[in-house]
Amino acid sequence: MRSNGLLVDVKGVDKVFRRGAERIRVLRGLDVEIPEGEFLALMGPSGSGKSTLLNLIGGLDRPSAGQVRVAGLRIDNLSNRKLASWRARHVGLVFQFYNLLPVLNAARNVELPLLLTGLKSKDRKRRVETALSLVGLSHRLKHYPRQLSGGEQQRVGIARAIVTDPTLLLCDEPTGDLDRKSGDEVLELLQTLNTEQGKTIVIVTHDPHAAARASRTLYLDRGRLSEEPVE
Amino acid sequence: MKYLGLILSNLKRKKLRTALTALSILVAFVLFGFLAAVRVAFSQGVAVAGVDRLVVRHKVSIIQFLPASYGDRMHQLEGVDLAVHATWFGGIYQKPSNFFAQMPVEPEPFLDMFPEYILDPEEKAAWLATRTGAIVGRVTAERFGWKIGDRIPIQATIWNKKDGTRAWEFDLVGIYDGAEKGTDLSGFFFRQDYFEEARAWGEGNVGWYYVRVKDPDQAAQVAQAIDAEFANSPAETKSEPEGAFVQGFANQVGNIARILTAILAAVFFTILLIAGNTMAQTVRERISELAVLKAVGFTDRAVLGLVLGESCLLTGIGGLLGLALAWVLITVKGDPTGGAFPVFYFPIPDLVIGIFLVVVLGVVAGILPSVQAQRLQIADALRR
Questions:
Q1: Which of A20, A56, A201, B360 has its CA 20 to 30 A from that of A172?
Q2: Are B299 and A84 a contacting pair at CB < 8 A?
Q3: Other C-beta atoms within 10 Å of B111: how many?
Q4: What integer pLDDT is reported at residue B45 of this predicted model?
Q5: pLDDT value, residue A1
Q6: pLDDT averaged over 10-residue windows placed end to end, chain A, 231 residues
Q7: Which residues contact A42 (CB under 8 A, 6 or more apart)?
Q8: A85 and B288: CB-CB below 8 Å?
Q9: Domain extent at residue A188
């Protein structure tokens, strides 16, 4: 259930990591609201907690304190099994280093999230072809990651992220490992998914050029968020 | 089934490592099959021993003789249906390694005592009519390429002939088969009267007796009665069920089952370490990939199942191929010693145990890496 078009509602979130006896407080009482259909960029220096926040929104990690609600559902206290099931249905993830399985070809990489659904083989195949066609790779179905360029691998990664038609697309430095041209193609694709498919997208980036594609940019530094870059 | 492709793809990731691990598992299960057949070779006599048969031997040792006259006295005892004697001949055919048992017996009562030896009536008649006649089991006949009508020379090691020589010759008049799979088809039997007449010493003595009792439930009482009959005589007896006698004979080599179990335990422990190491390596190499699976929605249990499935598939490929190869080699090629084992086959119960071991090996080898994969924290693993 969504209220007032708000898709993501993060309230008073702390995240503390332990390294031996040391406690590192990465996020401090952080609040953030992301409306449905927004293309949000998160920027900030290395170690500022951008990826940590993304992981909390995507249910890949749990906050030390505070609440994370997505589409009205509080996800920070779900069991591991329920959280996995929720991720499968609602979240698409795009990683900086693509994180494709090298032993599977493009089509089978994209098919992975669909294995968790009750879809039959032919339906899965149809959806995989549609997803790869959306990212312009219908001619690379049988290619293995090692046979694809970085840009193509990232587009396969995006196809894998959208194949289940998720509510939320979370991208962790999606252009960080790409040259400018390939990066632009990927950003163009994400923007299209946002404007034409209405996908809510959160992108973590160091690159102002990438952030410029977003409809809003938030800056994270020393565990706190702001609308303006911290000097 | 939809995950099978994913599991197979992972196994193909390092083809050489997978092949070598599967090969080592295969060899272990071939060995398992052969050791099972060897164990059967040593213990089958116990399994097929007649429940109504006793073996009566000298109380001191089997190599001490008993008087031939004991047979008639045993027949007088209540509960005894039939008593026949046999004697160890211990001859050599061509060379000492061509071992097989040879015994002089009285043909008709002997065949009556052992109905599991199937002999053609014409061959039986020929044996009864031929003083130097002998019959042999199918395994030994095929081992040496003997056929009916052959003259078989055997060099005695115990029994000199009256003419001072040790060369005995027999006319092969019959080849017997077994009524059941485990029947010993390696024996060579010739006529007692020929033996008695020709041997230089020991006349009137025999090696031991087989006694058939009328009621198997009374076997213990009959054994006691026989031993009591010959108590305080120069040749006291020890009577026991045929199964116990055969077991005691096999135990002279040692506790075969325990020796084979020890060998197999060492082999499987080694294989467990090899397969376990392969699975541990494969999980270590794929930490981030396993994290991606979890990130896209695979549950902890599903990831555990994938790794465990991979382990079971790896041991399954090697183990089942090994069992199949052992089956084929044992069935087609037979006894690797060329006939020293009276029976040699891969028993179905051992095959089932082998299949069970394949599964156990897969689960045990994969359990620790699977749990490691199950416990992966996505965010931590993605950072590695």
A1: A20
A2: yes
A3: 21
A4: 58
A5: 40
A6: 74 91 90 95 91 95 95 94 94 93 95 93 95 92 95 94 93 89 90 92 92 93 83 61
A7: A50, A53, A54, A202, A203, A204, A205, A217, A218, A219, A220
A8: no
A9: 36-62+80-226
Query: Among A55, A81, A112, whose Cβ lies nearest the Cβ of B379?
Result: A55
In this structure, what CATH number is given to the domain that contains residue A114? 3.40.50.300
> Is A72 within the bounds of a domain?
no
**Contacts of residue A116 in chain B, CB cutoff 8 Å?**
296-298, 302
**Cα(B109)–Cα(B132) distance, integer angstroms:** 17
Residue-by-residue DSSP string for B3-46? THHHHHHHHTTTHHHHHHHHHHHHHHHHHHHHHHHHHHHHHHHH
Q: Please report residues of A whose CB lies closer than 8 A to that of B382.
A: 60, 95, 99
CA neighbor of B186 nearest in space, from B340, B64, B305: B340
Q: Return d(Cα B169, Cα B179) in angstroms, integer.
A: 28
- Which amino acid, one-letter code, is at B381? A
What is the radius of gyration, based on Cα positions, of chain B?
29
Q: pLDDT tens-digit profile of A131-175?
A: 999 899 999 999 999 999 999 999 999 999 999 999 899 999 998
Task: Confirm whether A31 is domain-assigned.
Answer: no
Q: Does a structural domain hold residue A11? A: no
Tell whether A123 is covered by a domain: yes
H and E: helices and strands count for chain A: 7, 10
Q: Provide the ipTM.
A: 0.91
Assess A95–B contact: CB distance below 8 Å, yes or no: yes
Cβ-based neighbour number of residue B228 at 10 Å? 12
Above 50 in pLDDT, residue B104?
yes
- Quickly tell me which residue has 């891969």 as its tokens: B346
